[in-house]
Design brief:
With 455 residues, the chain is α+β, with helices and mostly antiparallel strands. It has three domains: 184 residues, Transferase(Phosphotransferase), domain 1 (Orthogonal Bundle), CATH 1.10.510.10; 125 residues, no CATH class; 112 residues, no CATH class. The chain is 26% helix and 21% strand. It has eight helices and 20 strands. It has a six-stranded antiparallel beta sheet, with helices on one face. Strand 8 and strand 9 form a beta hairpin. Helix 2 packs antiparallel against helix 3. It is globular, with a radius of gyration of 25 Å.
């Protein structure tokens, strides 16, 4: 197909964006630059009303449909429309991820609100095909403030990288309503430093959003069913009494209390339980995110006195779990290698931390010792404390290390290679994300240990 240039819309050192027309006068946008033809090929096959359609492509040029409308960065969306807009973004991302594509540059300026009232995801400069076997991305492509820590070359990006950017986008779209919004906790979970702590898919994000929107009706109906079960139970002779499961009809309850367009009723009960567990908060802002584990068989049951929609009694395993049961007595650790105290005051063991290693700051939010690279993560660590930790590690290693220290607009990354096996035989690295309104919801830091195997 032949295209005729009409006018240049934007020009920069990275390329040019122009309005072009075909022989029938239909308008398209042509963008020049450097693209992944593999990713564009996959995107061109996607049939989704929330993804800009690609007409033709190469590694240096892409021509896509012209969308009449404005990017979300240039408009203020009414609160009553915001929920549908965010859900449409989730659906668009789900279509990309189903095709094996990671967008890697989700932000308000790359999402158009067309004149028909629906969104279109555009700008596939940074898009790439997911490569599960790769250790990390070959280069950084994206936007500071929206790109997750792993996109800076620390680990491999996947669907959860787009989920991080989605969380930042939700936060920006909420504007001054963010702190009081019912969707704030969903955005915060999206923006977790550790990818394993985020939602596993955008489908889960959408379910969480719908639960937050309809949770009052859901909880009231669950309570009503529970009360009805108790009443019926009193009418059955004791010798014929059978246990009545409250968790079984939950799916139907959700179906009748949400809008007709809500497909949450098709989700398995166990997944609904997980979403409820990870989006329920108390009045003081605390969450029960950490009460849920994948190994549990959590069901929605044991609902008692639903005074508010934010109740911690929605989650249960074999018995009801409450937030008070998760606290333990705090005590000072003897050495850094024996035990440390997390921000929830739960004592943990970090045997992979070398003996004599500098004392780690308190407030550890999570750690991972299952893989070759061991990780310690803080989700609330101020800049001075993080930088002091970096200096302490450098001093501890002395001259036996090769240091790579990079400062970026996002924060700082440091890597050490210990050449003295008596101290540690391997690599140590630290990534710190700055705490700014633009970049993240709070300071975040990750310390990693990668031991070189003998032989």
């Amino acid at each position: 197909m032949e295209f005729t240039d009409e006018k240049v819309l934007h020009r920069s050192e990275h390329g040019e964006i122009a309005l072009v027309t075909d022989e029938n006068g239909n308008e398209y946008v042509r963008k020049t630059g450097k693209f992944s033809a593999e990713a564009l090929s996959a995107i061109s096959k996607i049939d989704s009303p929330y993804i800009a359609k690609i007409e033709s492509y190469s590694e240096s040029q892409v021509i896509m449909e012209y969308i009449s409308g404005k990017p979300l960065s240039e408009i203020s969306i009414p609160q009553e429309q915001l929920f549908e807009v965010i859900c449409e973004i989730c659906k668009g991302l789900a279509a990309l991820h189903s095709a094996g594509v990671i967008h890697r540059d989700i932000k308000p300026s790359n999402i158009m609100l067309s004149n028909d009232g629906h969104i279109r995801i555009i700008d596939f400069d940074a898009a790439r095909i997911k490569k599960p076997d790769a250790d990390k991305d070959t280069s950084f492509i994206g936007t500071d403030g929206f790109a997750p820590p792993e996109q800076y070359g620390f680990t491999q990006t996947d669907e959860r990288s787009d989920i991080y950017a989605l969380g930042v986008t939700i936060k920006l779209l909420l504007r001054d309503k963010y702190e009081s919004s019912k969707f704030r906790k969903v955005a915060e979970k999206c923006m977790r430093f550790d990818p394993d702590k985020r939602y596993k898919s955008v489908d889960q994000v959408e379910i969480a959003l719908k639960f937050r929107k309809h949770r009052t009706a859901i909880i009231v109906c669950c309570a009503a069913v529970f009360g009805a079960g108790v009443f019926v139970g009193t009418l059955i002779p004791l010798n014929n009494t059978k246990s009545i499961s409250v968790s079984e009809p939950v799916i139907n309850i959700i179906e009748i209390t949400t809008s007709a367009s809500t497909d949450i009723s098709k989700v398995p009960a166990t997944q609904i339980s997980e979403i409820i567990a990870t989006t329920t908060t108390s009045d003081d802002g605390t969450t029960n995110d950490e009460l849920y584990s994948e190994s549990s068989t959590a069901q929605i049951s044991n609902i008692e006195q639903p005074e508010t929609a934010d109740t911690t009694t929605l989650l249960s395993t074999s018995e009801t779990i409450t937030a008070s049961e998760t606290t333990t007595t705090t005590f000072q650790p003897k050495t850094v290698s024996e035990s440390l105290i997390t921000e929830e005051n739960v004592v943990i063991d970090l045997p992979f931390v070398p003996g004599g290693f500098p004392e780690l700051p308190e407030g550890i939010s999570s750690f991972d010792d299952k893989n070759h690279v061991k990780k310690v993560i803080w989700e609330k660590l101020d800049k001075d404390t993080a930088y002091d930790l970096a200096e302490s590690i450098t001093a501890w290693l002395g001259e036996s290390t090769l240091i790579e220290d990079n400062f970026t607009r996002l924060g700082r990354t440091v890597q050490w290679k210990c050449t003295d096996p008596a101290l540690y035989n391997g690599y140590i690295s630290m990534v710190y994300v700055e705490d700014t309104e633009k970049n993240s919801m709070f300071p975040q830091c990750q310390l990693s240990f990668s031991e070189i195997e003998a032989g």
